[in-house]
Write a structure and sequence with these properties.
The chain is an alpha+beta fold. About 40% of the residues lie in helices and about 20% in strands. The strands form 2 sheets. A 4-stranded antiparallel sheet has the order 4-5-7-6. It has a 3-stranded antiparallel sheet with strand order 1-2-3. It is elongated. Its EC number is 3.1.1.29.
Length: about 150
């Protein structure tokens, strides 16, 4: 399970993002929360510059860019958390979210799909159903078919 530590954000046993590479930004959270939400900056944006990170290998960087490219803005990966009223809990939530996102992106791809053939029975059932549907529609037709 990915976890934040004092030294950095542990993504996997072989990958820890140093705290120096992470940038936190705080803002006012929207939504319910009563008077406290109007006075505390509890929303957290946690950013990590993937392009300039010193802890990634070439393969890891390529995987992250390929799998999270739609989330990257100028090579920076950003996650937000605002579900809790307390800033500390939102900081932890954002750190867990970023670590899980990076762990999924860095993971090696799964095994390739092996092509399989349809069974003869499944093909026959499909064709039988098509013929049955065709006959039903032919019977509904207002003009007589050519077979009659």
């Amino acid at each position: 399970m990915p976890s934040p530590t004092r030294d950095g954000l542990v993504v996997s046993p072989s990958l820890t993002i140093p705290r120096a590479e992470l940038t936190e930004r705080f803002s006012r959270s929207s939504g319910p929360g009563g008077q406290g939400v109007n006075t505390t900056d509890s929303r957290v944006e946690l950013s990590w510059d993937v392009d300039r990170s010193a802890v990634l290998s070439r393969v890891q960087r390529e995987r992250i860019v390929a799998r999270t490219g739609h989330r990257l803005v100028d090579g920076v990966l950003t996650v937000t958390a605002s579900e809790h009223r307390e800033q500390r809990r939102n900081r932890d939530a954002a750190a867990h979210r970023l670590a899980a996102l990076v762990a999924d992106a860095v993971a090696p791809p799964g095994p390739r799909r092996r092509a399989t053939r349809r069974t003869r029975g499944s093909q026959e059932r499909r064709l039988k159903a098509k013929k049955q549907r065709s006959a039903t529609k032919r019977m509904r037709s207002s003009r007589p078919s050519r077979d009659d």
